[in-house]
Amino acid sequence: MTIPNALTLLRLCLIPLIVVLIQDRSFHLAFAVFLLAGLTDAVDGFIARRFKMQSEVGAYLDALADKSLIAASFIALFATGALPYWLVVLVIFRDLMIVGAVAIAWLLENPIPIEPLLISKCNTAAQIGAVAFTLAAGSFLVTTSGAHQIVHLVVALLTVVSVGAYFVKWFRHMAE
Question: CA torsion angle for 166, 18, 59, 109 (degrees, to 10)?
């Protein structure tokens, strides 16, 4: 067990707490715990790179933690009325499509290397930003409907472009 993997596991363990806090509409506490989860993400990545503690298990755990944190937060925020249904469906559908494509490639004995694209990193950052923005707005009881709509549209656009880029890469790989 490396320090980066332990931090990633801590991030995974914080997810249920974040969901419960969102459901209790304790947005200020949810925001603080969400920021802590984000900090563990930054620190685990820094330590892994700086001290050469990167591992295949760590890469998978990190991706699982990121996607679980985003999906759980989006669903919980939808349940409180803070995020629109269509955006939650789009975000989760993208991840399911990518996992499905990777599984199909693996089943067809043509596994595709799992490496995040730049657009995917931007998409993940936008999704995390959207959760943080929504929690912060709820924490400080700020009415930001115009800003929320812009954030939702940016996340939707990056989500669609990201899944498109992955499918272009997947089709090229499968054609080889």
Answer: -50
**Residue/partner pairs of 11-17 with CB below 8 Å, 24 or more apart:** 11/37, 11/40, 11/41, 11/44, 11/65, 11/69, 12/61, 12/64, 12/65, 12/68, 14/40, 14/69, 15/65, 15/68, 15/69, 15/72, 15/73, 16/72
Average pLDDT over residues 87-93: 98
Contacting residues for 30 by C-beta, under 8 A, at least 6 apart: 18, 21, 22, 135, 138, 139
More confident residue, 140 or 133: 133
Q: What angle do CA 134, 28, 137 make, to 5 degrees?
A: 30
Cα gap 159→82, rounded to integer Å: 19
| Rounded average pLDDT over 41-62 | 93
At residue 76, what is the residue type? Answer: A
pTM: 0.93
Taking the C-alpha atoms of residue 16 and residue 87, their distance in angstroms, rounded to an integer, is: 21
DSSP 105: H
Q: Which of 148, 135, 143 is nearest to 27 (CA)?
A: 135
